[in-house]
Amino acid sequence: MTRYSAFAVFREGLRRQKGWKPAWRSPKPKKAYDVVIIGGGGHGLATAFYLAKNHGIRNVAVLEKGWLGGGNTGRNTTAIRSNYFYPESAALYDFSVKLYEGLSRALNYNVMFSQRGMIVLAHSEHDMEMATRQYNAMRLNGVDAVLMGRDAVRRLVPVLDMSLDARFPIHGGVFQPRAGTGRHDAVAWGYARAADRLGVDLIQNCAVQGFVMEAGRCVGVQTSRGEIGAGIVGAAVAGHSSVLAQMGGYHLPIQSYVLQAFVSEPLKPILDTVVLAPALGTYVSQSDKGGLVIGGGLDRVPAYGQRGNMPMQETVLGGLCEMMPALARVKLLRHWGGIVDVTPDSSPILGRSGVDGIYLNCGWGTGGFKAIPAGGYLFAHLLATGQHHDISRPFDLSRFASGALVDESAASGIAH
Amino acid sequence: MQVFPCPYCGPRNETEFRYIAAAGKTRPDTTQPVQDQDWARYLYRQRNEKGAVREVWMHLTCGELFVMERDSVTMEVLGSTALRDGVE
Lengths: 416, 88
Prior knowledge:
The complex is a heterodimer of chains A (416) and B (88).
Chain A: H1 6-14, E1 32-38, H2 42-55, E2 60-63, E3 79-80, H3 87-101, H4 103-107, E4 118-122, H5 125-140, E5 146-149, H6 150-156, E6 172-176, E7 180-181, H7 184-197, E8 201-203, E9 208-214, E10 217-223, E11 226-235, H8 241-248, E12 255-266, E13 274-277, E14 282-286, E15 291-302, H9 310-323, E16 332-342, E17 349-352, E18 358-362, H10 372-385, H11 399-402
Parallel strand pairs in A: 1-2, 1-11, 2-8, 4-13, 11-18
Antiparallel strand pairs in A: 3-7, 4-6, 5-6, 9-10, 10-11, 12-15, 12-16, 13-14, 14-15, 17-18
Helix pairs in contact in A: 2-7, 2-10, 3-10
Chain B: E1 3-6, E2 10-13, E3 17-22, H1 36-44, E4 52-59, E5 64-71, E6 77-82
Antiparallel strand pairs in B: 1-2, 3-4, 4-5, 5-6
């Protein structure tokens, strides 16, 4: 396999680009694997990579019903941040940001993690008090944060409407300098290529249709490409987690919703950070190609259709025009929807499913992309050892019966 | 913009409606001691079906609860029934 480097680009330039090899193999499924991971999105691929890299478990298959990274990994707004409230969440998401910081090097694949920072705006005196509380929580959790007043926000994002008679005037905000954006496809492809190099079989167009049970234990999966045996099975299928749960006979506290996103026509550079306005229900960043990447809250209708509804489009885009009136005439290039798996406390589920041999990585809801490295790292630890890593322990499925929820619904700002 | 049928007011804009819960959940009998697992099942467990679903919705403008049957993939509405008539 070609190692990517500046030298390789130069060499291939001289060779008329004839020397590039496919980034990963397309193997036929074997009869059985030590670990079968269902779902070839970011979390599934990262899990396979860390199983091979950290734990030496290389007899691993990732089964993907469509194409790699074609679900929420390819549909999110690429924000990466760890501005959470509770210590459990801060530990989880900041671990992920730290892994992202070294990811391009670790994978030999440029994931274009750009730490351009992210600001969550405050729109009233009360919002400013909550922003201060958020800032204090982040600092206590060891996460970087800057509390900003009006002038600092104005300098950071000149395109914002700072007038005091705006519908939601801007009083300040909390800025996380280490937050930013990444290239979402590159994260999936980088993990896929690195996992493949370590011997993991990535099997696309392979839909799981059922579990093979033996004496109460899951010993494999039925797929559209035949039966595949498994020492253990890890499920990382996001919005379709409940569909898999019905096949496996376990139960989840998850509701699936559509989350929409939008991208505009390319513009000259106008925005060099990520801006979230909770009162308007809109957040926005600008991609390297110049498109504004725009997101908002959930469509509040339980759904599995990967497309959005009109009222939420109106809310999100209206919010953008309020926040940055200069953008009102910008045209959208495209918009789309993904199916997100929302839990009652807006925190993920990592742990045993309740069925012997099936483990869960799900419930990331609207915030799975930022957590891909940590989700994969911790899920690999769980699959390899059968035990929780200290960081993943609070996110076990058992918290719903014990009542030890990690309720981030309010802390993380936007409908998540 | 999707139109949902309220059994009382007829077809109305989707923005007038709010999803409440999956239909058919029964609150544990609190005259008896209730196990944590049973509370958790009632409070948190979701069927979250892909395809035909039965759900309780509220029409916010008239304030009435009713059962709507939908397809959660196509968003097609398959029927709506008033809760008052003792259906549930």
